[in-house]
Amino acid sequence: MATVYRGKFLQEFLRFAKQAELPITPQLRKTLYSKNWVVYAKRPFQNPAAVVEYLSRYTHRAAISNHRLKSTDNGNVSFTYKDYAHGAVTKIMTLDAGEFLRRFCLHILPPMFVKIRHYGFLSRRNKEELRAFQQEQGINSTDVQKEKHGDPLYFQEECNITICPCCYKGTLTTILYFAANAPPPTINNKLKAHAKKLKNSSYEQRKTFC
Q: Locate the Transposase IS801/IS1294 domain: which residues (predicted)?
């Protein structure tokens, strides 16, 4: 199956490259077809859109979305959750702000750990090889400049970030920007101690911690 998939994929790729007038050298073509592909294909339970939606939950969403937050009163945070032990019934849980932040921080990725890794010629270790390939193919490599704080990103009609994501009518207003910074030492030490406690505990004990 890997050979067939490679052939079909490269056939469409070369057809697109020809339409886009991308120079594909014979050496590059030979290299593409000489690589052994590892392919695992399985029919989705619903459709491709459902697969993308499922993966996006883990790659482009935070630990808790805004619509699940119900109230923040007197130092307590109330939010909805699904109780899968009782038929996925939606319930409301209330935690003090400190405990809510502690649980939220458990979902923050540790340093050097990313949700999406790039392999092959897109990986960081092949940065120089990618640049050489771009030059060989006549592709202009331009570094994308990061937007500075305060720069209007809403000039793109298809991406208006000022519209409220909840009601789609109100206009969001930027009140304050927070500079990137590490958490206070006291909180950081508590999180490290809790992570160490989780690491050295059994599965049953971990369920009581989280």
A: 6-127
